Amino acid sequence: MAQTTPDPVPADDDAANKSRFARAIDDARANAGALRADAVELTAAAREKAGATAAQWSEQAGELAAQARDKSLDLARQGKDKASEAIAVVGRSIADTAPVIDEKLGVQFGDYARTAATALESSAEKLAAKDIADLGEDARALVRKSPAAAIGLAAVAGFMVARLFSRSGRRDA
User: Fold this and answer.
1) Which residue, 154, 129, 124, 155, is CA-closest to 142?
2) 91-98 long-range contacts, Cβ below 8 Å, gap at least 24?
3) Among 68, 87, 100, 126, which residue carries the largest CB count within 10 Å?
4) Which pTM was predicted?
5) What distances in angstroms separate CA 142 from CA 17, 41, 80, one per listed residue?
């Protein structure tokens, strides 16, 4: 069997292969550069879009927070008005029953009822005249002055709210 030897590659073919390889490397480098530029451009566009979206969401959150604040202040004012009205009604009721107390228990107890009625009506007027911010400051002053009493009042209020909600849940069931 005769051995064949490969034909030597002519020098021109070798140079052509090297030049094709060099062109392929240059093309690959150019494509990599283009891809890098595209990636930088896409990243910048994505950052810009994310920034715009974040700004939009932040603006919407600010608007919602303002609406919630306004609604809560409105509800607080309504609650304050209803509370002052209820205190005034209780005061008027006590004042209206003072003559009956005079007859049944004596004038001294009727005077106590009238004093209590006057104090309740005065408190209702003061409550109605105060702003929500003033009431908040009064509450802070009470907590600073007597923290134990404030904790007790908070516990009683929490208990009353819990009872209110537990009863309303039973009626719904």
Assistant:
1) 154
2) 91/116, 91/117, 91/118, 91/119, 91/120, 91/121, 91/123, 91/124, 92/117, 92/121, 94/120, 95/121
3) 87
4) 0.54
5) 92, 60, 18
